[in-house]
Amino acid sequence: EVQLVESGGGLVQPGESLRLSCEASGFTFSRYTMTWVRQAPGKELEYVSSISNDGSSAGYADSVKGRFTISRDNAKNTCYLQLNGLKSEDTAIYYCTTVGSRGQGTQVTVSS
Question: What pLDDT was estimated at residue 53?
Answer without folding.
Answer: 97
